[in-house]
TrEMBL record, chain A:
The keyword Membrane applies. This is Sugar ABC transporter permease. Belongs to the binding-protein-dependent transport system permease family. It is found in: Cell membrane. Coiled coil: none annotated. The chain crosses the membrane at residues 20-47, 80-101, 113-139, 159-185, 206-228, 266-288. The keyword Disulfide bond does not apply. GO terms for biological process: transmembrane transport. It is a multi-pass membrane protein. PANTHER family: BLL4140 PROTEIN. GO terms for cellular component: plasma membrane.
UniProtKB/TrEMBL annotation, chain B:
InterPro entries: MetI-like, MetI-like_sf. CDD domains: TM_PBP2. The chain crosses the membrane at residues 12-32, 76-95, 107-129, 141-163, 184-209, 243-264. It holds the Pfam family BPD_transp_1. This is Carbohydrate ABC transporter permease. Residues 72-264 form the ABC transmembrane type-1 domain. Keywords: Cell membrane, Membrane, Transmembrane, Transmembrane helix, Transport. Its main location: membrane. The lineage of its organism: Bacteria, Bacillati, Bacillota, Bacilli, Bacillales. The keyword tRNA-binding does not apply. Signal peptide: none annotated. It is found in: Cell membrane. The keyword Coiled coil does not apply. GO terms for biological process: transmembrane transport.
Length: 296, 277
């Protein structure tokens, strides 16, 4: 009797534990790779460490050095250019194209064409556009057409190359935003638009006053995704210029990688990663806070 | 009024067509030039139609240069296995969170989902250090585990949402029939979740396939290197001057994602979950 009872309670105890076993693989993997990594990065960002010798804690020195490091400052500026450029091309132009596409009959054709580059990875789009922009490609064509001054390797011109890469990544990245905008536009109920039409709203005014406010939820998703991704721009730059020439086209993600894995400054690299993460979190929070307010 | 609408519609069509053509031009460039020989590309103009058909030579060259095939197969392996494992683990967790008796459901969900909050730049230094210490650096298994772990949060998010929509009555009646929790997970939840599982698979496979950051950081030899890291060797200072081979490699490496694009193309109009990775 006693034994049976303890067996029963053993069994019920086990029964209480078993549901947690379903969670275990996910929690362990995410715990090891994500949560441990976050904590480790935070700690290392306060240390001077080359990965071989012992860690030396130096307080906020890495963070203070950041703001005196010309490479970091330039890279922040480039990242800002990426962010603004992303708002212009993959967001604003995607919206313009989406509105235009909802007005024509061959929607699916245009959707497919504009989305197609998105089926390539950023790395591959980078390789393709690098060869197009090389001296054998587009600049050469312009040279033949008589614009001799344009016939050089654009990607080796500091600052110009960042702009070119922003446009290139716009070519690759416009598709998803475009599709989301079209989905959003098609979902907008017809009644408020008809009502506004009857009251005389047309063209741009109709869009500004009626359609765009209704598109706000999708707009926020697109903005959040695009902003966060533009802050993390890495692949395109890595392939197209590798951050050069003379580290002039680096973004924060590239600078972080180079400091950590080329210059072996793991502490400094972690500090840049922290800076990047906190910036991204603040942006996300600002955008999402607005959404929650809108829902109230 | 009608004629005005028709005319503006036509203008919009022309406007879109011009840009669509611009958007398509790079593809034309790639297709035309990937079949040329290197000599033909370097001596001729890129807008000339190809005279030779050097696909085989170009492939042999690029395969030699960056172990293209090995990278391709590695990425297929990472993409297929890591995504499958992630879906398996995430679905178990989603099942526990949505239907089993556990404490702190929201806590566990947020704990796992927090994996998507920080940019992946936060992870590369710690994982690189950890892998160097336990000899997982530059191994297939090492990259496989990383990809699995990083796919879990997104899959959990999608599957948990779906699992909550499964009617409780179904579960109750299965329990009356004496089905165990695991049986219910397999025969009800997993069976009903085919569509979201497919979506998770396609999206996460694409992410793994396209990843450059972790491939660069955690692998160095061709044995473990994923496809995008291999391709990245083609550009920059150490790159190749053989443009046609690079373009051919770009085409072949895009086949899996183009294939997925074709599958997803059909479901565009229904809207689909997105990831900010």
């Amino acid at each position: 009797m006693e034994i049976a009872k303890s067996k029963l309670s053993m069994k019920s105890k086990l029964g209480k534990i078993i549901p947690y076993l379903y969670l275990a693989p996910s929690v362990i993997l995410v715990g090891i790779f994500c949560i441990y990594s976050d904590v480790f990065s935070l700690i290392v960002s306060f240390a001077e460490w080359d990965g071989l010798n012992e860690m030396k804690f130096i307080g906020f020195q890495n963070y203070m050095n950041m703001f005196q490091d010309p490479n970091f400052l330039l890279s922040s500026l480039n990242t800002l250019i990426w962010v603004v450029g992303t708002l212009l091309i993959p967001v604003a132009i995607a919206l313009l194209f989406a509105i235009a596409i909802t007005h024509v009959k061959t929607q699916s054709f245009f959707k497919t064409v504009f989305y197609l580059p998105n089926a390539l990875s950023q790395t591959i789009a980078g390789i393709i556009l690098t060869t197009i922009l090389s001296t054998y490609g587009l600049p050469h064509l312009l040279g033949v057409m008589g614009f001799d001054s344009l016939a050089n390797d654009w990607l080796t011109v500091p600052y110009l190359n960042t702009l070119i890469m922003v446009v290139s990544s716009g070519w690759q990245g416009i598709g998803l935003n475009l599709i989301l905008f079209i989905v959003g536009l098609n979902q907008i109920p017809k009644e408020p638009i008809e009502a506004a039409r009857i009251e005389g709203a047309q063209g741009i005014k109709l869009y500004r006053k009626v359609v765009l406010p209704l598109l706000k939820p999708i707009m926020l998703i697109v903005l959040l995704m695009s902003l966060v991704n533009s802050f993390k721009s890495f692949d395109t730059i890595w392939v197209m210029t590798n951050g050069g020439p003379y580290r002039t086209s680096e973004t924060l993600a590239v600078t972080m990688y180079k400091e950590a894995f080329v210059n072996n400054q793991l502490g400094y690299g972690s500090a840049i990663a922290m800076f990047l993460s906190v910036t991204v979190l603040i942006i996300s929070w600002l955008l999402l806070r607005d959404t929650f307010k809108g829902e109230e | 009024m009608k004629s005005y609408n028709d005319r503006s519609r036509k203008n919009i069509s022309i406007f879109l067509s011009i840009f669509a053509f611009l958007w398509f031009l790079p593809f034309l460039y790639v297709v035309i030039n990937s079949v040329k020989s290197r000599k033909e590309y370097n001596l001729g103009e890129f807008w000339d139609l190809p005279k030779s058909f050097s696909i085989v030579e170009n492939f042999v060259y690029v395969n030699d240069r960056i172990d293209f095939m090995m990278g391709f197969l590695n990425s297929l392996f990472y993409g297929a296995i890591a995504t499958t494992l992630a879906i398996l683990f995430a679905s178990l967790a989603a099942y526990a969170i949505s239907s089993l008796k556990i404490k702190g459901k929201m806590f566990w969900f947020m704990l796992i989902y927090s994996g998507t909050i920080f940019p992946f730049q936060m992870y590369i230094i710690p994982i690189f250090r950890m892998y160097s210490n336990v000899d997982l650096y530059d191994t297939k298994i090492g990259l496989l585990v990383v990809y699995t772990a990083l796919c879990i949060p997104f899959c959990l998010f999608v599957l948990r949402n779906y699992f909550y929509s499964i009617p409780k009555e179904l579960v109750e009646s299965a329990k009356m029939d004496g089905a165990s929790d695991f049986k219910i997970y397999l025969s009800i939840f997993m069976r009903m979740a085919k569509a979201p599982i497919a979506a998770c698979f396609l999206f996460q496979f694409t992410w793994v396939w396209n990843d450059l950051l972790f491939g660069l950081t955690l692998s160095k030899s061709a044995e473990a290197r994923p496809i995008m890291s291999s391709l990245s060797l083609l550009n920059g200072a150490a790159g190749t001057n053989d443009v046609p081979s690079a373009l051919l490699a770009a085409i072949i490496a895009s086949i899996p994602t183009l294939f997925i694009f074709l599958i997803l193309n059909k479901s565009f109009n229904y809207g689909f979950p997105t990831t900010s990775k």
